[in-house]
């Protein structure tokens, strides 16, 4: 199990398209991925789960990854978030 | 602000029949644009299409949330459509879609938009609530269901 706290840098936060990119990325791995914001913990491999976080720009999210490819998974997810989901701002 | 604050019975269509994604989005745009402080249906339709081109707003389980930002609009408007026959909507689980919550927001709308999306995900992600929305026969019945606070039971 690996844990890491991430900060959302993209201007629009975890809106629907960013959420679906995150879910696609998380679902590409065998490991289980969980996200927690303000005490609410959701499955990061479910779009309905990730949207529930309603996380705006600047939010801190705790990411937990557990499984055989957890190191590759967390590296890919951190890169996606740090690259602002490929958005310009 | 909640979904029931931006939705009204006249923007809920149950038992509708459409043949394609495009005609669904046209109908959604028409309903969304009937609210006050919204752009005209053509502009709303273009924003919905533009968003779908970036990736389907299908969420799986036969539901989708078409939405778009419209720069010329000041208000936030929601609509709901339930089809009598599901259509192909390129959803991530490849299931056909019959239940739609549509949303039209101003360009700069951010926190409210995230909260409305979260409420839609909560209502559509709850299997029991989703089936009740699916079997509602009128706009009034849908609004009554949407007034139920799920946070008590969903935990």
Structure overview:
- In chain A, 34% of the residues lie in helices and 26% in strands.
- Chain A has helices spanning 16-27, 47-51, 70-82, and strands at residues 2-7, 32-37, 40-43, 60-66.
- In chain A, strands 1-4-2-3 form a 4-stranded antiparallel sheet, covered by helices on one side.
- Chain B has helices at residues 3-6, 21-33, 41-53, 111-125, 127-135, 139-146, 151-154, and strands spanning 12-16, 58-60, 63-64, 67-70, 77-87, 97-106.
- In chain B, strands 1, 2, 3, 4, 5 and 6 form a 6-stranded mixed sheet that branches.
- The model of chain B has no long low-confidence stretch (mean pLDDT 94).
- Chain B has one domain (3-147): 3-Layer(aba) Sandwich (Mannitol-specific EII, Chain A).
- The two termini of chain B are 21 Å apart.
- Chain B is globular, with a radius of gyration of 14 Å.
- By secondary structure, chain B is of the alpha/beta class.
- Helices cover 43% and strands 23% of the residues of chain B.
- At the A-B interface, helix 1 and helix 2 of A face helix 4 of B.
Mean pLDDT of chain A: 95
What does the radius of gyration of chain B come to? 14 Å
Helix content of chain A: 25-40%
**Largest inter-chain interface?**
A-B, 20 and 21 residues
**Fraction of residues in H or I helices of chain B:** 40-55%
| Oligomeric state of the chains present here | heterodimer
Strand percentage of chain A:
25-35%
Mean pLDDT of chain B: 94
Number of separate helices of chain A: 3
E-strand count of chain A:
4
CATH architecture of chain B: 3-Layer(aba) Sandwich
- Would you list the SSEs of chain A in sequence order as H and E? EHEEHEH
Terminal CA distance of chain B reads 21 Å
Shape of chain B: globular
In terms of structural class, how would the helical and strand content of chain A be classed?
alpha+beta
List low-pLDDT spans of chain B.
none
**Count of separate structural domains of chain B:** 1
Give the amount of beta strand of chain B, in percent.
15-25%
User: Span from first to last CA of chain A?
Assistant: 32 Å
């Amino acid at each position: 199990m690996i844990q890491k706290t991430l900060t959302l840098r993209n201007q629009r936060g975890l809106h629907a398209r960013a959420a679906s990119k995150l879910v696609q990325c998380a679902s590409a791995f065998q490991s289980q991925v969980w996200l927690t914001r303000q005490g609410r913990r959701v499955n990061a491999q479910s779009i309905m789960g990730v949207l529930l976080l309603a996380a705006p720009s600047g939010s801190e999210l705790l990411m937990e990854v557990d499984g055989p490819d957890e190191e590759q998974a967390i590296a890919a997810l951190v890169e996606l978030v740090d690259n602002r989901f490929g958005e310009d701002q | 602000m909640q979904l029931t604050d931006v939705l009204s019975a006249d923007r809920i269509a149950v038992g509708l029949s459409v043949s394609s994604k495009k005609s669904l989005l046209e109908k959604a745009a028409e309903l969304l644009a009937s609210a006050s402080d919204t752009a005209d249906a053509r502009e709303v339709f273009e924003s919905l299409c533009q968003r779908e081109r970036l990736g389907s707003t299908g969420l799986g389980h036969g539901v989708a949330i078409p939405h778009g930002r419209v720069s010329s609009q000041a208000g936030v408007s929601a609509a709901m459509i339930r089809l009598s026959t599901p259509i192909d909507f390129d959803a991530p689980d490849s299931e056909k879609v019959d239940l739609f919550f549509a949303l039209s927001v101003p360009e700069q709308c951010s926190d409210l938009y995230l909260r409305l999306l979260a409420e839609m995900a909560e209502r559509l992600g709850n299997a029991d609530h989703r089936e009740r929305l699916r079997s509602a026969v009128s706009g009034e019945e849908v609004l009554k269901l949407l007034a139920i606070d799920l946070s008590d039971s969903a935990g």
